[in-house]
Amino acid sequence: MRLLIIDDEIVALNALKKRVDWLSYGFQEVFTAQDAASARELLVRTKIDLVLCDVEMPGEDGLSLIRFIRDNYVDTDCIMVTCHAEFDYLKQAMKSKAYDYILKPIDYEELDTLLKQFVAEKQEKNTKKMVEQIVERTEAFRGGSEDTQGDRIETAKRYIEDHLHEKIYVEDLASLIHVNEQYFMRVFKKETGKSVTEYITERRISLASALLKNTDKSINFIADSVGCDNYSYFTKLFKKYTGFTPREYRNQFQKS
Predict the structure, then answer these.
(1) Cα torsion 214, 218, 221, 226: sign
(2) Per residue, what are the HEC states of the chain?
(3) Selection from 117, 140, 4 nearest residue 69 by Cα
(4) CB-based burial of residue 58 (10 Å sphere; 0-12 exposed, 13-18 middle, 19+ buried)?
(5) pLDDT of residue 197 exceeding 80
(6) What percentage of residues in the chain have a pLDDT greater than 90?
(7) In whole numbers, what is the pLDDT of the chain averaged over residues?
(8) What is the tens place of the pLDDT at every residue in 109-166?
């Protein structure tokens, strides 16, 4: 996440930036500005997750800036920093749709509580959004025609073919066609008649067989070419599927 601190008093600005361990709350970057104009310029260039804004500033005040942020950057939350504790003033401030406020001089324990609350709510929103996206993608996939589902499985199969020399993860294949892993595995077996693991293994053995027949590459090289970096495991797997060790298989074709 990214944080923007706005305060026209440079001493207060630096104190707030340095005194808090912002990284512990998940803020990888902390930006600062001393007036609303500078803050606006930064907001245009950089996605900001949270703004801590001093309300009392010369020129455009913090309340006006917070209203601007809420109108134009809906994913950016704002915490006001103010010297005013009067009810009417704070009521006006909260109408600007600020996330919350904290009084000066800053009570850092109170700020800690406020930041932890913000981070927890942010994580909950992100998790909820992620779940909704997964549900939407899965429903869209389920709702598609058989041809559409077939096309997506073909996409996964092409990926497998292009990456037989690497480790292939079901998670990556599911992500490729925008569904969750469990649903992808069910649809893949329905479309191909094989589990994802079985299909990948068969394609690897098929490629290894072709290389043994048609090239003079070493068996170690061929094992690496089909994603098996263990010679012994490759030999056992190859024999399980073909009835021959790789060396026996190659000798068969050399004799013929």
Answers:
(1) positive
(2) CEEEEECCCHHHHHHHHHHCCHHHHCCCEEEEECCHHHHHHHHHHCCCCEEEEECCCCCCCHHHHHHHHHHHCCCCEEEEEECCCCHHHHHHHHHCCCCEEEECCCCHHHHHHHHHHHHHHHHHHHHHHHHHHHHHHHHHHHHCCHHHHHHHHHHHHHHHHHCCCCCCCHHHHHHHCCCCHHHHHHHHHHHHCCCHHHHHHHHHHHHHHHHHHHCCCCHHHHHHHCCCCCHHHHHHHHHHHHCCCHHHHHHHHHHC
(3) 4
(4) exposed
(5) yes
(6) 50
(7) 86
(8) 999 999 999 999 988 888 887 777 666 666 666 655 555 778 889 999 999 999 998 8
If pLDDT is split at 50, 70 and 90, which confidence band does 219 have? Answer: very high
> What's the rounded Cα separation, in Å, for the pair 69 and 75?
9
pLDDT score for 95: 62
pLDDT in tens, 62-101: 888 888 888 888 889 999 888 866 555 566 656 666 788 8
For 120, 130, 154, 218, the CA distances from 124, given in Å and listed in that order, are 6, 10, 35, 53
Residue 208 and residue 242 in contact, taking contact as beta carbons nearer than 8 Å = no
The more confidently predicted of residues 192 and 85 is 192
Residue 58, preceding bond cis, omega within 30 degrees?
no
Helix axes 62-72, 36-45, angle to 10 degrees: 20
The amino acid sitting at 146 is: E
Whether the CA torsion 215, 218, 221, 226 is positive or negative: it is positive
* Chain centre distance of CA 69: 25
